[in-house]
Write a structure and sequence with these properties.
The protein has three helices and five strands; from the N terminus they run E-E-E-E-H-E-H-H. The N and C termini lie far apart (about 95 Å). It has about 140 residues and is α+β, with helices and mostly antiparallel strands. Helix 1 (about 50-60) packs across helix 2. It is elongated. Helix content is about 35%, strand content about 15%. The protein has a three-stranded antiparallel β-sheet, covered by helices on one side. It has a single domain (about 1-100), classed as Double Stranded RNA Binding Domain (2-Layer Sandwich).
Amino acid sequence: MQIPTNCTIPNDEITYEFMRSNGPGGQNVNKVESAVRLKFDLKSNSTLPEDVKTRLFNIAANRITKAGVLTIVSRRSRRQDKNRKDALKRLKELIEQASRKPKPFKKTAVPLRSKLDRLNSKKRRSQQKQLRRFPLDSE
């Protein structure tokens, strides 16, 4: 499988398991194994760069087993070949998403005018509350 990040995944690193799909299927629902479970071993893969692997682990953390195998299940169609293509497409989309580097976070400073406005409003509120106090008897 060719990925735009200038790397290819050999077909022998991707395994498929077929199973019966739930949902509509007519008379064949209990006979035909049309659902597909795609398994891709991330830990033993040598073609993906390490930074892409780590981002992929973060993106698809709930789909990765403890052994480092990414699992994608597709049962959208009633046909096995369509489900296989759909699972491959979803794997490709995940890898493309992981290959995009995130923008660096830039911490923004609070503008000086906002700080001054906040302090002035606190002063005004404090003065308003002081005017409500009972006057002290100095006599």
